[in-house]
Amino acid sequence: MKRLILAAVLAAGLGAGLTGPALAVNPDEILPDPRQEERAREVSKELRCLVCQNQSIDDSNAELARDLRIIVRERIKKGETNEQVLQYVTDRYGDYVLLKPPFKATTLLLWAGPFVILAFGALGTAAYLRNRRAAGGAAGDTAPLTEDERRRLDALLRKDGI
User: Which residues lie below 8 Å from residue 61, measured CB to CB, with a gap of 6+?
Assistant: First the structure.
């Protein structure tokens, strides 16, 4: 029985290790030249699916991603460099299509946005904690028990056997 469980765990581990990412490239899209196909995959991994947003066009099953993959392969077949293909797609769809957009004035909000949100969150948290402390809501600001409250608490604890 132990050997059967060990074999099942081993097979599952090997199966998980051998599986790669599921790519959405259809067989009819693949270029016959392996070097061109490799270049197409490199370029496709840098382009964002405009429908899925956080997937590359290489990973997306969306129809628009398929159209972009075909455009990439057509331009590579024409002899364009990877940079020329990326520039063509960027000119057509804007910097948003790039998974790693360049740092420039038009993408400043995209790059600085998370830090601005984090800063506002930190300021809001600090203001909340300061106001809470000033209002006496902090745990260390509670009044001590009176003698009557202490006797009642002791009686309750003895009654429950604690």
Answer: 24
Model confidence over 81-127: pLDDT tens digits?
999 999 999 999 888 899 888 888 887 887 888 899 999 999 999 99
How would you class 29 by CB atoms within 10 Å of its CB: exposed for 0-12, middle for 13-18, buried for 19 or more? middle
Instruction: Let me know: does 76 contact 43? Beta carbons within 8 Å.
Output: yes
Instruction: Give the predicted TM-score (pTM) of the model.
Output: 0.56
Cα–Cα distances in angstroms (integers) from residue 1 to residues 7, 8, 11, 15, in the given order: 10, 11, 15, 21
H-helix or E-strand containing 7? helix 2-18
Q: Which two tokens stand for residue 5?
A: 């469980």
- Report the run of H or E that residue 37 belongs to, with start and end: helix 34-44
